[in-house]
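Researcher: I'd like a structural prediction for the single chain below. Treat it as a standalone chain; there are no partners to consider.
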Amino acid sequence: MLSVLVAIAVTQLPPARVVVVDVSAPDAVYEDVSRAIAEQVVAELRAAGLEAVRIDENELPEEGCRLGPCLGTVARARQAKVVVIVDAVELDKKGRTQVSVAAMAGRDGMPINARRYVTRAEARPAAELKALIKDLARRLTPPDAGT
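Model: Treating it as a single chain, here is the predicted structure.
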């Protein structure tokens, strides 16, 4: 009986909250390109069943937020279990962009997973991004949630 109650309680847990922060340097890539990539990451996280939001630039400190205590403050403010940072750099004038995506635990900033890939504007999500998100979803979804 107890195992049934636990299984019911686990399946009623809300999806894990994930915040996505674009930490791309302003001189490394056009802002609309890095924003579109961050929004693609959010869309893929949501498609995997995770509650994900992109933190807008105006929600961050004026001096920016790339590492450490600042990201922890953002995670706590949003009650996030995971912070995903997206760092994009324009590679060439052909529209290729190198993207680094890293996931960290919201409570302590410990690394969970990271991937790097090259993409073009309006391209389908890269296999590396899908692999990272699949791993995150596996880690953040309770074991009995699918039953």
